[in-house]
Each structure stands twice: as C-alpha cells, then as structure tokens.
Design brief:
Elements (H helix, E strand, L loop, with lengths): L12 E5 L6 H14 L3 E4 L4 H11 L4 E6 L8 H14 L3 E5 L2 H5 L3 H15 L4 E4 L7 H14 L3 E3 L11 H11 L4 E5 L5 H7 L6 E4 L3 H14 L1
Parallel strand pairs: 1-2, 1-8, 2-3, 3-4, 4-5, 5-6, 6-7, 7-8
Helix pairs in contact: 1-2, 3-5, 5-6, 6-7
Amino acid sequence: MNTEQEFDLPSLLDVSAVQTTSSKEDVAFVASLAAKFNCKAAFALSGFLPFLKEERDRLGGKFLIGGTIGYPSGQTSTKMKCAEAKILVDFGADETDMVLNVGYLLSGMLQEALDDIKAVKQTVGDTPLKVIIEAPVLGPDDVKRAAELVVKGGAQWVKTGTGWAKTGTTLEHLRLIREAVGYEIGLKVAGGVGDLATIREMLQYKVGRFGIGRKARAILEEYEAARGAN
C-alpha cells in the first residue's frame, strides 16, 4: 500500500477545467491550485488557454499547460482534429489530450480510428499526446482494443476518460488496459477520482497522471495534512 511518503501527488496531477460549464473563474482556480501545490500540469479548453498561460505567468507557476483535441465526443473529422492540434502546437501547449473516435471503434472501423490517432500524432510531433479512450462507456473487449490502438498510433499515453461520462474510471478499467498493452505506455486516469484513497488504489497499475477538476483542492489538502502527520 502506498503512503504519502512513497509518492509525490502534485507531480501526478493535471488539474483541469474542461467541462461545458468551465468558466474563467474555474480556469483561474486550477491555475492557482497548480501554482500553489506545484502540480504537474493544468488543462483548459482551447478558448481559455491564453488566459491560463497569463495566469501561470502572473503567479510564477512552473506547471505545464495542456490543451484538448476533439473534445468531448472524439467524432470530429480527422482534419478538424489536426487543425486543433496545430493550433495547440503553435500556441506552445506543453501537452495535448485527444479523444479517440469511439464511434469508429464501436463500428468496427479500427483502421480509421488508428489513422485518426496517427494523423494527430504526426501533427503534434514531439509534443506529448494522450489519447482518451472513454473507458467508462466501453465494454471490456473494446477497452482493450482502444488501448491497443493508442499504442499502435504512437501516442505516449492512454487516458481513461474525458470526465464527461456519467460513470467514472474503475480499477477494472485499469487492469484491462495494462493487460492489453503492458506497463511501458503512460496511463492517465480522469473521471471517478474523488479522493486520496482512490488514488492510492489506482497507483498499483502504475498510473502516471490523474486529471482532476475542483476536487483536486480537497485531495491535495488531505495529502498535505497526512504528510504533516507523518
């Protein structure tokens, strides 16, 4: 069992404001949180990325800035995704999270889904790419197929969800992903992470990032309190 002394929680956190209702205040909140706790990254939808960068600079934060591609459905055309990807790269985003075309996956159009990933990966170049497979809406076999597509597409990370699904990521999703693609590829969890206990459980699957919104403050405060108690 992991303890607070055995992992550095802020270095695993991508604090995010990527919902339909995410406001300028929400973006400012995650920026302040990332700067205060020295989190790994902060994410916003592309319309608020300039403001997120302004806040990082104002606060003197060192966190990475991440943007999204094809959010949240993943069913925009590949040309549209590549256009979004180029905008993010030209802006100077440090990381990019794209959504798999789940519709292609569920239709058995695996080559089309793979080509979609490859095109975006080519567009972002050396900028790290995470591919969101939206595991909470998939059956076990499709979770595995999706993870395999991410690896074949050349992305650096499998990301479990957008955080927009009604249900969240489970330990079973993580088990399926690791069973399908092993432990060499990065794994980011988003959706369903509401407390520190869940993070501790998920770390057994070598999760390298957790994407969390406003709940991140309570989790970070709990983590800091536990460290102080130790």
